[in-house]
Amino acid sequence: MINKLVLENLKHRWVRTFLSALVVGVQVMSILTLIGLSRGLLNSSAARMKAGGADIVLKPDTQGTFSFSSGQLNSKFIDFVAKQPHVKQAIGILTANVVLVTVMNGIDFHTINQFNGGFRYMKGGPPQSPDDLIVDTDYATEHKLQVGQTVKLLNHNWHVQGIVENGVLAHLMVQLSALQKLTGNANPPRVSEIFVKLDDPALTDQMVAQFNELLKGNLKALPMQDVISQFSINNIPQLKVFILVLTILSVIVGFLVVFLSMYTAVVERTREIGILKALGAKPLTILDILVREAIVLALVGCVLGILLSYGVNALILAVAPASLPVVAVPDWWPRAAAIALAGALLGAIYPGLKAARQDAIEALSYE
Amino acid sequence: MNNNSIISVHGLRKIYRIGEVDVHALRGVDLQVARGEFLSVVGPSGSGKSTLFHILGGLAPPSDGEVLIDGVDLRKLTESQRTELRQKKIGFVFQKYNLLPTLTAGDNIAIAQSLSHTQTRPPNFDEMLALLGIANRLDHKPRALSGGEQQRVAIARALVNQPAILLADEPTGNLDTENSNAVLGILRDLNRRTGQTILMITHNPEAAAFGDRTVTMRDGRMLSAA
Q1: Which end of chain A offers a freer environment for a tag, N or C, measured as fewer CB atoms within 10 Å?
Q2: Inter-chain CB proximity B94 and A364 less than 8 Å
Q3: Pick from B59, B102, B114: which is nearest to A12 by CB?
Q4: Chain segment A92-112, per-residue pLDDT in tens
């Protein structure tokens, strides 16, 4: 019967109930979208890196996995690495940050063809001149680019020479020497990392150990599998802090929304609280009713939030498939629900206690 | 205390503190109500009728004096125990009906049962609903019921837990003459048929006449017993 009262109370003021649940839903959606974006970006980056075709990645010894800084590694190491036993091929890649998380790769197109089979051109072809730019289909769709167009990136006018199938290395690729020149990494020539392909991938761990011994103090070798596995939210402290801040903000928003909703409900239902007390409702029963209402608000908000997150994801993917490759994160639903529930329960406590402490006689005379 | 008394009040005082002023709402009330009696309490506004109603109903504690309800001394009860007293021994009927607006008439009755953790209804309860004329109105919410119907639902709600005492505070105060007479007739009939003890507070002498006996209050004291 108490559950029925709770539901009827919520139905009675359905606009307030819906709006409160909607705000909780927006809070849930924000969490799911942020996590989905973070994971989507990381998954996309990992997949693109893996599609590069390397067995081992060599980076400057001091650089983490997620550095966007360019040119910290002298190109002379490429030849040195290429001459090592079991190395089938070594290729230097220069990475330059274009905007936010969008990067441009400078690569040797001739070598990359032998390295991973090259790119599949949907339109146009490989770069012919230093100003030629290759974009992938996602980037071309997002920025409505066609072969032959000119686009300004990194304060330089590029000519779109080809559109390749999405999924290998960066969304934007130019000739290595052109990017080195543009980013001040031409003299001496520098790259961000070296991709190494072995004649036998089974030797990866052995070769990693060998490189780390040989290049100690200069470069650090990592199996591609390890590099990929580091593309996780847990390995990016700044992202973890950001998610924590968002979680705290979500709890505060949930708290405020449910607090205001419940506080209004308690004031509005003062007389009804008096009636319940006259009928023998204990203070805990009154508190229980309001807590249950808050839980229902939070749960309805969660469902709305999950549905909204799918809507927002679809919108993001339609507008910015290259820059914001968001993914659905069902494994985060329980956590988002718990965050919403925590905010709602905190918000229900004070109004609930106020209602529970209400004097029955005063409440019954409330107009 | 008379063995047959279901309500026994001696020297009851109630002092409210409003700001820094003590308001003496009851100044030594003595009252005996026999089991199965229908007592009317009349008096002008401010005479202490409502305060007496609240104390007898366990909604407020007495300041001084003895109050026994069905053998239970209210002075010794904690707030929680007074809540249990309201669940088990008291049924309330208010002037403004005080039905929960979000629930149907039937659910308003059911929630009183739910709050008192009572599983079964009185054996003749369906008959009583028919007598009250609300058997076919139970699916309606209060806003769809007339004042008379709402008050009859409130009476059914007050009786569903088979209380020792039915306390009615100006039960016809919001009703027209026809509905007033109907509700008062129902209370009297209920008292006669089932022996339900009823204490009714009213300022209307005609309504008071439906009771077996009328007592008058003025300035926080019991003036007379008719």
Answers
A1: C
A2: yes
A3: B102
A4: 999 998 887 788 999 998 888
Q: How many domains does chain B have?
A: 1
Q: In whole angstroms, what is the distance from residue A200 CA to residue A156 CA?
A: 41
Q: Tell me, yes or no, whether B1 lies in a domain.
A: no
Where in chain B does DSSP place strands (E)?
5-18, 21-34, 38-42, 64-69, 72-73, 90-93, 165-169, 197-202, 213-218, 221-225
Residue B126 counted as domain residue = yes
Is residue A289 within 8 A of residue A265, CB to CB? The reply is no
- Centroid of chain to Cα A299: 24
Strand pairing report for A190-191 and A73-74: antiparallel
For residue B193, what are the domain limits?
Answer: 35-61+75-221
In a domain, B190, yes or no: yes
Q: For position B53, which CATH number holds?
A: 3.40.50.300
Please count the residues of chain B: 226
The count of CB pairs under 8 A between chains A and B is: 68
Q: Which amino acid would we find at residue A307?
A: L
Q: DSSP letters along B170-223, please?
A: STTTTS-HHHHHHHHHHHHHHHHHH--EEEEEES-HHHHTTSSEEEEEETTEEE
**What pLDDT digit, counting tens, does each position of A136-170 carry?**
998 999 899 999 999 999 999 999 999 999 888 89
B/e letters for A235-245, b = 16+ CB within 10 Å, e = fewer, are ebeebeeebee
B18, part of any domain: no
Is the per-residue pLDDT at A225 higher than 90?
no
Q: Which of A105, A189, A280 is nearest to B81 (CA)?
A: A280
What the block records as the tokens of A124 is: 């146009």
- Taking the CB of residue B106, how many other CB atoms lie within 10 A of it? 17
| HEC secondary structure over A9-47 | HHHHCHHHHHHHHHHHHHHHHHHHHHHHHHHHHHHHHHH
Cβ separation B80–A361 shorter than 8 A: no
The rounded distance, in Å, linking the Cα atoms of B104 and A184 is 78
Nearest chain B Cα distance for residue A318, angstroms:
44
